Amino acid sequence: MQHEQPTGPLSTKLDLRRLIMRLVAVVVAMFFFGFALVPLYDLFCDVTGLNGKTNSTAFIPATELVDTSRNVTVQFVATNNEGMPWEFRPEIFKLSVHPGEEIETTFFARNPQRMTMVAQAIPSVSPGRAAAYFHKTECFCFNQQVLEAGGTVDMPLRFIVDRDLPASVNTITLSYTLFDVTADQSEQVLSAASVSMASSVNTATL
Amino acid sequence: MGDHGPAKGFGRWLYTTNHKDIGTMYLWFSFAMFLMGGVFALVIRAELFQPGLQLVEPEFFNQMTTMHGLVMVFGAVMPAFVGLANWLIPMMIGAPDMALPRMNNWSFWILPFAFAMLTSTLFMEGGGPNFGWTFYAPLSTTYAPPSVTYFIFAVHIMGASSIMGSINIIATILNMRAPGMTLMKMPLFVWTWLITAYLLIAVMPVLAGCVTMMLMDIHFGTSFFSAAGGGDPILFQHVFWFFGHPEVYIMILPAFGIVSAIIPTFARKPLFGYASMVYATASIAFLSFIVWAHHMFTVGMPIAGELFFMYATMLIAVPTGVKVFNWVTTMFRGSMTFETPMLFAIAFVILFSIGGFSGLMLAIAPADFQYHDTYFVVAHFHYVLVPGAIFSIMAAVYYWLPKWCGNMYDERLGKAHFWLSFIGLNVTFFPMHFVGLAGMPRRIPDYALQFADFNQIASMGAFLFGFSQVFFLFIVIKTIRGGAQATDEVWDNPEGLEWTIASPAPYHTFTTPPAIK
Question: Which terminus, N or C, of chain B has the lesser number of Cβ atoms within 10 Å?
């Protein structure tokens, strides 16, 4: 009797090779399941509106009916992520809007550094269950923002509060966190951006 | 080739496919890691002996907390259980060896390389991992030291080792049982390991995926966990704890099996409620997959999520309670004696229950906001891991060592080791409950003055516990080198096939399958 031989008189009904194939398949499947958690997580947040995630592309309104009988307060919060030196604030901190009405406001940003920088704003809506009813038709957060040294910009935001917003929600807070993504850009993107803005910034200072 | 002995020299260990040799290597390796992780812990406790910064820089302190956790979880506890599985499962089910002996060799021998890589980071510029053993992004991505890539590959290798070990264990248990050894006749250690192995193959790949995402975020410009690029740092915590929560059961289920073997022997009664033990283990394993977010109550989950994870977590107390009830009932009116393995097993039941109760306190979502990231959490998981996993491993070593090496350990020394460990561990970890409830945060090298007394007590206990383990090393070596000859049964009428073979266990056992009654 060879002790290295796994199959033989000791083996029960299960075929060893088939069992191992199955186990390896489980391992491979679970590895990809780990990655599948990423879209599943986003999907879960989208469906439930958890996490305060808002739409990341422009919303096209289906109707222009405005519910003038109701007022909803929308508050704006602007935060810089750690290490982000830009000046960043909403032009107006609080608005009273009617559901269905398209509202435009702006956020102000200034780059105080001596170099061109790229920023990305990430939105979040509170309470989370209001996120699905807060539609942005235009937002500076859809794109990255490039500012040359000392440059300023008024960034537009247009949104509609859905007429189906639950009656229990009277105040919606829209918060933006501004991230410095300059390091993630290639030098070409930065210099192209600088040139397109007719900037005199020397790319060597990047 | 039925009864040749082991080869000579280092080649024996390098090329061996013998389950006993590999089990021995796993156990020695895990003991070495246990001492190394212990040294890291003592650096932490020495720094926390008094308030203020005296011994180490905060940056190095962070590396110590991280490495202590990683080495103890992946280097000490998990390999020790795999070592016990290698030694015991074939002998318990009447098999001549593991089902895949060559892979067995491989899954052990990649481990030393993984840990060499991991510890080498401590000597690199920028230092080793400093982001906690849970390596939350962006601490472990955007703000990580450059050595994080070594950490990632070390985790990959440890994961590969665990996965191969688990496949081997499942294949052995399902295919190699002696005729007549039905599933419901298997010893509970085999049952708990079968379930643990399934947990491992389900979650270790998720961990591998998680660190792979980190690797891609760091080096290949993806943004899985970076909010600036559209990813989400909270996602990291979900992916990590989807692995992490089953992982804590991976570290405790085999312990349940060990204790279920030891208590009946020294109570001289059969285990109470064998079938309910099997079902309870399976229920705990299932529940472990749906409770992960109780580690994240404070991230801003909606109330429905908090409630779901709170109730699901509390549900785990039910099968765990069944187990504790069964162990106590097994001892009830038994003819008990208190040899060293039994002392460790009883301490396991009592102290693990204390850890379970503090776990229930943490499971209460609204209360967790007070306890989160304090020393109360540290006290909780050390109460389940030290007198849980570690005590069960020590109990197993005392219980089966005479079978492995043929000599009885010195009972007086064993008991002394038990009491030193028992006192040391309680002095170390019990005061942490108090400072935690009073608000001392974990993973911080300094603390407010009012925590000084309890921290001094804890540090003294830690050094007592730590040096007791050097004593343990002495006892084990002394037993291997000599001592009273153990009988084949070793104990008074113990149950299990491993006691039917000679002591020390011959190099090859059950080359012809035993008859199962």
Answer: C
